[in-house]
UniProtKB/TrEMBL annotation:
Keywords: Biological rhythms, Nucleus. Residues 34-115 form the Protein EARLY FLOWERING domain. It comes from Salix viminalis (Common osier). One of its GO terms (cellular component) is nucleus. Pfam families: Elf4. GO terms for biological process: entrainment of circadian clock; positive regulation of circadian rhythm; rhythmic process. This is Protein EARLY FLOWERING 4 domain-containing protein. InterPro entries: EARLY_FLOWERING_4 (IPR040462), EARLY_FLOWERING_4_dom (IPR009741). The lineage of its organism: Eukaryota, Viridiplantae, Streptophyta, Embryophyta, Tracheophyta. It is found in: Nucleus.
Length: 122
């Protein structure tokens, strides 16, 4: 996807260079690159948060299994709070993925709209 957009931008830039000494396309590309960097940083941060919660859930599940296998009444009682934490964490993951979906959709539509606007200007 980026290759197609980059090659289109390069062709557009070459055409503008011949007719207009001010290079606005390169400025637009730089702005798009900055936006892309911000979007990827946001995605990266979100994926790190998801992975952190999933890692915590793995530990919780191991603890629940160990407590269950021990058959010690106190450990079984501890499982209640561990399972509650698991449920809260699952809700967090759902929320994070929902945010990721929304962020991706917004970034895609903005990028698509910017491409359309740049084509109209040319």
């Amino acid at each position: 996807m980026n290759t197609t957009l980059d090659s289109f931008s390069a062709a557009e830039s070459n055409m503008e260079d011949l007719s207009n000494p001010t290079i606005t396309t390169n400025q637009n590309t730089n702005k798009e690159d900055e936006v892309d960097d911000e979007v990827w940083a946001t995605f990266n941060n979100s994926f790190r948060q998801v992975q952190s919660v999933l890692d915590r859930n793995r530990v919780l599940i191991q603890q629940v299994n160990e407590n269950h296998q021990s058959r010690i009444p106190d450990n079984m009682v501890k499982n209640v709070s561990l399972i509650q934490e698991l449920n809260v964490n699952i809700s967090k993951v759902v929320g994070l993925y929902s945010d990721l979906n929304s962020n991706f959709s917004t970034a895609y539509h903005q990028r698509n709209q910017n491409s359309k606007n740049n084509c109209k200007k040319a």
